[in-house]
Write a sequence for this structure.
């Protein structure tokens, strides 16, 4: 088992199988020493969205549940990354995360929600997990997911 996978196991995380795309796109693209992972929604290990992670922040979804949803998205991003490169120890750095938060127009805590994904990257990759980030509130996401996260990684 790799060092990164040891850290995942210690955090109680088992990566799910990488989800298949649901439209005309690929789940990841590798170009040079970068891997870009398409947006992943907050599907659980069972392939479904938990009811607490469905709907809008600022309405049906509480901030803490939003952070949990962002963490679930990040786990799915890592599952796609592992499918792309085979061994997560090849990650040199988490370059960037993009977060989309399904929220009401006046919801102001989108950065705090996205911390659920960012905190996981730092927990698993240490300083190499610190990354650039954009987070925006959006009107709707696929399957009424509360959060979607995409990522860019430098690999060896």
């Amino acid at each position: 088992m790799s060092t990164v996978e040891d850290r995942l196991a210690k955090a109680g995380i088992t990566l799910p199988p990488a989800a298949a795309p649901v439209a005309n796109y690929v789940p990841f693209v590798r170009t040079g020493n970068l891997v870009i992972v398409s947006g992943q929604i907050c599907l659980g290990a069972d392939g479904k969205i938990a009811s607490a992670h469905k709907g809008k922040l600022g309405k049906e979804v509480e901030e803490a549940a939003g952070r949990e949803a962002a963490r679930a998205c990040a786990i799915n991003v890592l599952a796609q990354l592992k499918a792309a490169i085979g061994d997560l120890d090849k990650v040199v750095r988490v370059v960037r995360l993009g977060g989309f938060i399904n929220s009401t127009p006046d919801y102001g805590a989108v950065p705090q929600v996205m911390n659920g994904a960012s905190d996981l990257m730092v927990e698993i990759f240490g300083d190499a997990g610190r990354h650039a980030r954009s987070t925006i509130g959006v009107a709707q996401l696929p399957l009424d997911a509360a959060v979607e996260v995409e990522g860019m990684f430098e690999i060896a």
Q: What stands out?
A: The two ends are 18 Å apart (CA to CA).
